[in-house]
Amino acid sequence: MAKITSIHIHLINLPPKTIRTDAIQSFVTQETPIVRIVCDDGSEGIGYSYTIGTGGSSVIALLKDHLAPQLIGKDPTRIEAIWRDLLFHTHATAVGAITSLALAAIDTALWDWRAKRASLPLWQLLGGAQEQVPVYTTEGGWLQLPQAALVEQTLAAQAAGFKGAKLKIGKPRAAEDVRRLQAVREAVGDDFELMVDANQAFTVSEALRRADALAPLNLAWLEEPLPADNLAGHSQLAAHSRIPIAVGESLYSPGQFADYVAQQACSIVQVDVARVGGITPWLKVAQMAACHNLAVCPHFLMELHVSLCSAMPNATWLEYIPQLDDVTTQPIRIVDGMAMPPAEAGLGVGWDWAEVEKRCLVKTAIS
């Protein structure tokens, strides 16, 4: 029986390849904690999570000072027990982003270890529900773009084979959002899916107003229209909006998702494997959504979510934001707008360790 003998932790920065501005923030960099778990028989698993520019050092401190030391001597097959023990070990800081992101880096490494040990790609180990997943892009559509550029980028995405594109909303006046989206809809036609994302910018009254104004545009969903902690507001909006309501990237535990599902406050579940605390809780949320006939369309981390989406029958979209290309050996494979899960055992993320070392800001080991 293998035992964990050491944990190696890196923190790297990955500047975005395009300017990214939404209704509440701009993206400066992606801080990426990477965790490599090594066992006494030489087997290993590699996991990771991310921030969008702040908090990375706090995630690393939590890993180094509190979580990683708890892993030494543990049996890596007991992933559920390890996740639960680590959650309770940090109960004073959970539920929250820093703890969830740290847990995710460890948990994804353990699942990578398990899939490699089984000589299976992760998506097959978890059930292998579908061999390809439709892809929409979020690389264009940012709020700072003028209308002409918004149209041009969305047409380029359509020509590149994407099945849909997500556009940011949250201009000072609703009429501005409507004009921009109307121009895009007229350019791409009715058969191309358009999603919109407000990034928690609206009040309930404004969200109701904008949802009504945008409804004629046949949108796939309205994402994060309200602050994520406004459960009652989302429930009210979901009951009145003709556009499906999507939430999830700012929820940090299965329990928070359970509250949304119980209150019928969304119909698109965007559970993020890093922000919810790893693959172990991600699967609970996705399966809960399946039991309630809700679609799962995870936020960000396409290199990992392609495998998780392929494992779940109710995963209907993968979000395209290429962020790991500079530190991995190959991008995910997309054919005719459909993402293919990796064939390699494990998570299927091939790390370019020379590039990781070059970009490394923090490096530490626990044994």
UniProtKB/TrEMBL annotation:
Organism: Silvimonas terrae
Alphabetically ordered keywords of this record: Magnesium, Metal-binding
Cross-referenced InterPro entries: Enolase-like_C_sf, Enolase-like_N, Enolase_C-like, Mandel_Rmase/mucon_lact_enz_CS, Mandelate_racemase_C, Mandelate_racemase_N_dom, RHMD-like
Name this polypeptide is given: L-alanine-DL-glutamate epimerase-like enolase superfamily enzyme
Cofactor: Mg(2+)
Alphabetical list of Pfam families matching this protein: MR_MLE_C, MR_MLE_N
SMART domains: MR_MLE
A Gene Ontology molecular function term of the record: magnesium ion binding
Keyword Metal-binding: yes
